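Lecture 7 notes: from sequence to structure.

We start with a single chain of 910 residues. Read the sequence below before looking at the structure.
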Amino acid sequence: MKNTINAFPDSGWYTVFYPLEGQIEESDWRSPVAKPWLKGRFGTKTALTPEGDQTTQNGFWVAIDLTVGKSTRGYTVADALATDSAGSKTKPAVIDDVDGDDSTPGSTLNFNPYIASSVRELPDHLNLKIHKEFSLSKNYGELILNVNLLEEAGDAVKVNLVVDFGNSRTVVLALEQSGIENGLSSACRPIVFPRPGTDLDSLDMDALDLDDAIPDSWFALVEGVFKPEPTRKLSQAVNPTFQKRSLFERIANTARRDRDREVFQSSHQFANVSPAAIGYAARQALSNIETEGGGMSFLSSPKMYVWDDAPLGANGQTHWTMQVQPWRRSEDDVASLVPLKGPIFRFLPNGTTKWSLAHRDAELSAEIDRRANHSRADSLIWVALSILEQAQAQIQSEAWRKGNQMYLRRELGDILLSYPAGWTKDEIEIFREKWEIARDIFLLSRFEDPSKIKQEGRAPEIRLALDEAVAPQLAVVFSEIHHMGDTGENWIELMGRGKGTDARVRVMTLDIGGGTTDTSVIEYSDKLPGAGVDLVCKLLFKDSTTIAGDRLAKDIIERVLLPKLGEPFAANADDREKFEQFFLRQIKRESERQQRLVCTRTVFIPIALQILRSVSRGDSEIVLDLAESGAALKQIDVLNSLGHKEGLTKDIINPIEKLEIEMTKVEKVINEWFTHIAETHARYAGLFDCDLVILTGKPSELPQAKRILSEKLPLDPARIITAKGYFAGEWMPISEEGVIEDAKLVTALGTVVYNAIESGMVPGWRIRSFVDDEYRLQNHWGRISGGLKPLTERDVILQAGELEGETRMLTDSFVGRTRFLNHMLPERVYKLVLKSGKQVMVDVRFKRSLPQAANDEYGISAEGLTLIGAKDAITGKTIPLDEISLKLYSTPLSGEHWQESGRFEVRWSA
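Now the structure, written as tokens:
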């Protein structure tokens, strides 16, 4: 049996699978003697039959790392003296640290761990007899691995990543920075997150599953496929020429002797740093998880917690745990969850250590504590790194290059991120910082001299190009103008007002995501007469609210699903109360709380989303097969078991029975949820005299969205464009017909258009942008009470248009913003915090922080507040500003994200 890899030297690691007949016992990776660049293990692979059914194959996995370099190549590990080991004059002595892989035979020998010292030393072809390398049974026959090492025919092609990292789902598009003779669609493809063990070289890049291309944003922490490579101790000769010779040395005319120092280092082999699994891998991990080990092993989108920098694990609070790979589990293991560990600690040893790429060795000392107390905000680094690692593997694959410049290497280019329209500058910069740390870890774990790469401008740049309200609009505007021969004023005159270069059109976007609904109003004009487009974009308004798709999913669970499941308990008052209290009561035991969260994520949310999908498809009735809906059957059993412990006499869910849901109840919930959104945006459309409305985001696919919006908006329904099913044209990536198949794609597509135009990939197009002066002072800011109610004049700190204001309030109180008083629920943004932790009545003065550019051409933050003065309201004593602060605290008004509460209110009357 043969497998073939066609790859460039020094391009990382690759895996292949050899199906084997008969039973096997899964094992951990091992390497042949003196070949640490080759690994193998017995294991299984999940595959799909021609009929689409899932099946499991037994076999033997092989991994080969084609990284080349001298024995000194790698990155230093937690040693303040370690700087650059390139000048080492002695061979490295290899040792094993506490989390290193000590299973490699010969790991203590002084030899080069890489496949070759340089590309020149590699042959053009490798023929490896796997059965002999790993001493496999003759019953398996010959297992051959051919590796063809390709010669580069030209310069490497930069591949930019466009990331729409949502609260519910994520899209990552890769845009090659090259010519687009065959259209933009030929240069843009999705990064996919398929089943673990999928052979990337076997992927058909032109026929990808949208579920793999648009994974869920929540993550699970899972032990890496490979154990961390062993830490090596290099004895490094150092000649301190910067020191003057002593008097004795000058008299004796002797030079200073070289002295040795130890440098602790890890190699660049089998780089696999991020512990975060997303997409199918995360669903697979949670479907069989056992939470007895406690701790937090998964989290809904870390983007919702970008503000939360509090370290975990303090004062008995929860800490991070991870799942052990099943083939490494022992019968003696106490639990399948263990405290977070692995190579991520070589870069982020705890939740408080900070470092920079230029000064990392000095900032990561050898005495530093290893603790799994990272903040929820830090989890964004793990997920960002997981995305970068997956993208790197995919763009290096043969499938990526097939039929598309096969002999040109790809390398990661800039990372373009979108972000919520209502974020303040502080939130935007934290988001950028976390991605930059992920980028730096990515560079350190893979490349020689990453600081030099960064200085030379070859490192990926983290750019916040467009927000989530502007980006989806640009995709549609580009398509509309493209349909009309790339003459901008033709479309603008048709849809807007005025003639020629004086014509203008006002477009409002309503982007309904999972965590936020983002809104923007932009006025467009084309300043280039005739053919070609000089598109001028004037931002009039943008905002975001947390009334979005996740809230609809929660309403479906509480008002439709749970009452349906509670029907067998409803007749008896005692049973009914037990059923209600089972879902509502405060959960005290940490392991049970985590199990409830697992059930929320793997049972209730998949069923709720399947109900909404049925409505989106226009089904006449909703009859659910629970397994097909994506609900984890094992976790249904766990849920039933928990119910029995609480005194429920029947199962909560029968996993083998189909679930019939009443359509009218679902429609009522959707109508009420979207009516509020539509009424708010009807005010916006009238206030800004909009000519066109674009409706995007996954919930916009519900038929009620367009219908209710048409009823409420002061516009002809023909001027309301819904993203789902919209014909973008032949430029459209991820579609053979040029039609948008999933409304989630539009934000990423808009950023692709923006990047392609600014890179000169779209001839005859230019985009310019600026912000209307009146945009900057639009929100009211005020105190937020515990209840869910709109801001009133009595709550206001700053009226719209005011720059400064003062108020009296208790510390630990919340401050939020709203566009309209007395009508809209405010968005919680800040918490007033006293350093001592005491609750004190204070007189405080705030200043409005005006929107600022997000260090990118188009990106702009929302307005914020700055605390400029504080006094004790009782004593009148001034409180120094280093003892009181306005801390970001953008949680829902209910106090916590419901996905992390594990609690529901059964609302019997839908």
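The first helix runs from residue 130 to 133. Keep this in mind for problem set 3.
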